[in-house]
Amino acid sequence: MTIEQLHQLFLEFPQVCTDTRKISPNCIFFALKGDNFNGNSYAAEALKNGASYAVVDEGEFAVNAKTLLVKDVLTTLQNLAQFHRNYCKAKVIGLTGSNGKTTTKELITAVLSKKYKTIATKGNLNNHIGVPLTLLSITPNTELAIVEMGANHPKEIEFLCQLAMPDYGYITNFGKAHLEGFGSEEGVIKAKSELYDHLTNHGKSIFFNADDPIQKNKLGSVVEKYGYSQEDNQFFRIKLISADPFVKIAVGDTNILTQLVGRYNFTNCCAAILIGHYFKVDLDKIKEGIENYAPQNNRSQIINKNSHHIILDAYNANPTSMRAALESFHQLKANYKIAFLGDMFELGKTAEKEHQEISDLVTIMNFDQVYLIGENFFKTKGKLNKCKSFDQLKETLKNSTLEHATILIKGSRGMALERILDIL
């Protein structure tokens, strides 16, 4: 079966599923393989549960006309997504960066959806499987698609750009994320810049932070670029008024009070404001979209529990985002501050150095209490409270009386530090 023929089936049954636990009626099931599963073995179950077709790549599972045999299921999914993206008329905005991708994507969506029919990456489905699924969610009515692209090794963004063929793009920042795969901070910059390289090579438009020297220098000779800045009148002016705790922004005479904490969320908002302005969304609608956006899923969430005021930022962490969160927390006005910091993953040979630097930084900040959790933080030098595991932290806090505290919880997803809420 050719991609063109498969696409005709997809137009008739425009729902794709890769998990038999989430089968929707009349969808097409793609039997993907993983380290611990073989989707081919679930094809019959998918059809039984309501799928119209199942795409498989092992002959023994192609038992009837509703099982479509291909050479490789993943490649077929990607090729179908690429074909569908080119078939549809929607403009695609590509988004990547070390920190803030998902929050920025949601803010951009909140703004653009005030004027346009939009779709966007769900959650953080931003890899070689998630991007195709996002592209396949584009409908004939979609005007703008915001596609988040993640990467943990070189050439991954380049590949995702070949699938999504973005018309526009934005990089949130370049930070110390996934150093194990990129090798160095320079490797991060080179890999994330694959989005800007693609856009430049194809004569497309770039949005950027003109106050970021890396982005400004890299895009010096690029013609189709649109930036925002706090000070430079060459670019769209957006000013930070305050972030104590919520980010407040000025665009001309209009003030925007967000539900986002931390100065690091200012640039995430700026991207949405700039892109909304570029697409001629009225400023009052931009303001409405941003002010109504409330973070969820452990991303800079404000939670009031018992007598505590908690900033829950436990979705992910790397040295750059950890430092930004701590600096923002340090600037907050509060009587009693406690920081719970969990290990940062995927740092490779730099893990010891990066964890020690964070430990040294938080020591200087002199919060009332600090708890470092995880094997990497446990190895650091210093006199802070250190727990090798979450269970050890739980035991440590068993006899503690914590009241009326302002608390920061920050760590990598694998640490699942949101569990701290249950023991406070």
From TrEMBL:
Transmembrane spans: none
Sequence positions that bind ATP: 97-103
Domain Mur ligase C-terminal: start-end pairs: 299-412
Protein name per UniProt: UDP-N-acetylmuramoyl-tripeptide--D-alanyl-D-alanine ligase
Origin organism lineage: Bacteria, Pseudomonadati, Bacteroidota, Flavobacteriia, Flavobacteriales
Enzyme class: ligase
NCBIfam families with a match to the protein in the record: murF
Keywords per UniProt: ATP-binding, Cell cycle, Cell division, Cell shape, Cell wall biogenesis/degradation, Cytoplasm, Ligase, Nucleotide-binding, Peptidoglycan synthesis
Species the sequence originates in: Arenibacter arenosicollis
Residue stretches making up the Mur ligase N-terminal catalytic domain: 16-77
EC numbers, comma separated: 6.3.2.10
